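Recall that a protein's primary structure is simply its ordered list of amino acids. Everything else, from secondary elements to tertiary packing, is in principle encoded there. The following example makes that idea concrete.
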Amino acid sequence: MKSKIMRILSVLPIFILVSACVSQAQTPKSLLKAPDWFLNQPKDDSTFRYFVGSGSSSKGDVAGAEKIAVQDIIDKIFFYIGVEVSSNTTAEAKASKDKFESDIQQVVKTQGQTRLSGFELMEKLPLEKGDNVTIYVLARYNKKELDARKAEIEKMFREREEAISGPEKEGIDLADKGKYFQAVIKFIEAATAASTSKVANAEIKFKRNIDEAKEAVDKINLIKLNDNLEGHAGQKFSEPFKLKVTNGTSEDDPGVPGVLIEVTYKIVSKSGVSPKTTKVKTKENGMLEFDHPIPDFVGADTVKMTLNLESYTSALSDVPAQYSELVDSLESLIVGKKTVFAYKVSSNAKNIITGIVILDINVDGGPLSKTETGQSLLSALTEEKFKTKNLPLKPSELLDKGDFDIIEILTAKYSSDAERAIFGTARILSFSDNDDRKIAKCSGTVQVVDLKTKEILLTIVKDVNEMGKDENQAQSAAFKKLGKEIGKEIKNKLR
């Protein structure tokens, strides 16, 4: 018996903080029953909350009994905190709980107070009956410290799950109210949280939220409020391109404010036609207006408007590989939410009386009395409804004269009959053979001048090749083709 008591004393030293409960002279041998504080647990006071625990071993295993007693204390503390590890508990939350348990164990084992703020061991007493050993533990926890730890652990346990379930629930509520655009944002937020979460069934939750986002996107529509606009080159369109983004399928459905729309249009520069994009947000009524830059070309084209959720979907760009296909399907659906406006730009030049005089020159450099290039150009522009007329100048009046001199002649003679003039030369450069046919290479340079201001509005340089059975036919065909090609350039470029 003495050896057993000595073994208990050596493994489990008595630490008494409340002397009123047990006198200093008392030893484990004198503890013949459970202490009163175990049978009648101390009531919480204004500062502390009290916890008691016990653990037993039928084989005299003091360490084992102590471990059970400490776990009893821990279980009661966590019962108060109100959290329980489950399949939804994150690794971070589990680690936090494990650390908390370890700190409690160390305080009880070492009878110290430094590892866990606010937690104190009051008593740890053994009761021995034959081979049975029971350890009783009394501890107290500062209420403020305990409640702070409770809030901290509760937050840790719920925050990852709520990062998914919270936005998802909001998204469902918004979708039920017909607020599909706002719902999409919440479903994407929930899916993003699920993509990095360690909660159970994270992959299922990710897919579910992506599917819910797609379903909501499908109910958002871009409604054109006007279309087929017409304008003139060099002039602003009479009205902007108008769009309404709706939580529905028609113009009468509720509009969605603050939606980013990507607008794609084209401009013409020296390097050619190039696409441009800009982003516009819808107003409070879900509408937006896009003022197209002043068109600097003639012809038909389109303006495309596309739903842009890049600021939200960008959070999904780094998802694990198994989610990529789902993300791609959502992004494809978003990009598919678009509408295209058609428009046509006409040249105001059609309404301006324009005279034409072009000197045709043969391969030897001599002027031709027949003006086939000018006549072909006149026909081409007339087909496009230009107001044109031939100017009856003699070849000698144009030959070997500079542009300034020609403009002076045209202004002096025809400014009262026409507002503009197209003048220039068409020259046969060479002939070549192609089997039994001749090919004529022809080059032309023409300019369009304003006869009131003497300003050159457009310069066109064009080369063509054309065949004929002999040189005369090839030459005639080349001049005619050149006239048509110059006509196309004027139609598309002259304002």
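The longest strand covers residues 420-434. The two ends are 117 Å apart (CA to CA).
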